[in-house]
Amino acid sequence: xxxxxxxxxxxxxxxxxxxxxxxxxxxxxxxxxxxxxxxxxxxxxxxxxxxxxxxxxxxxxxxxxxxxxxxxxxxxxxxxxxxxxxxxxxxxxxxxxxxxxxxxxxxxxxxxxxxxxxxxxxxxxxxxxxxxxxxxxxxxxxxxxxxxxxxxxxxxxxxxxxxxxxxxxxxxxxxxxxxxxxxxxxxxxxxxxxxxxxxxxxxxxxxxxxxxxxxxxxxxxxxxxxxxxxxxxxxxxxxxxxxxxxx
Length: 247
Hints:
- The protein is mainly alpha-helical.
- It is 65% helix and 7% strand.
- It has a single domain, classed as Up-down Bundle (Outer membrane efflux proteins (OEP)), CATH 1.20.1600.
- It has helices spanning 2-26, 56-66, 68-89, 125-169, 174-190, 196-230, 235-240; strands spanning 96-104, 107-115.
- Strands 1-2 form a two-stranded antiparallel ribbon.
- A hairpin with a 2-residue loop joins strand 1 (96-104) and strand 2.
């Protein structure tokens, strides 16, 4: 048991070191006054509540409104379209107008004229083709970004649904029954009706079951975080949505 405790302490230290490195990389993107994230987040010890996994359509609608990658891709496409429209207007580059008077032989004549350069040889085809290519590239980039965001949301949501189903199917007294089995083995050993090996086996079974159960809860919480992050939600708001919140 002491060895297991020491192993858990080492794993916690490694996780804290990893979190410190991740925060150092993230720090450059957040305000200087922002505090480091809380080292612990409570995970509810029980099956997920109903409706814990949002619908795919809702997540996609949220991503179209809030996902920064999609917003940036749409902005690049709008800029490319505006550039293409502008280059098309440059086919006729200059319009000239003339208005004046001319006095000759005692007579004053009004002169008016309009000059329009005809794009016979230079129709700005090169710039138009370049702008059209940039617009097509921006359209493909937006489509690719949408597919990436959709794939991430579907993967995270699928994992969350799978884990939620598994957690809901587990008996509510799962850990209590394992603890009861350990207590029975311990009492039997104290009464001389059991062996120490049986106690150790029951204790290890309880430890392994508890570890697997809470790892499943943590994986479900991580899937929810991944799902909301892919949809463009604020990570701080997502963390606050967990029961217990940061601790």
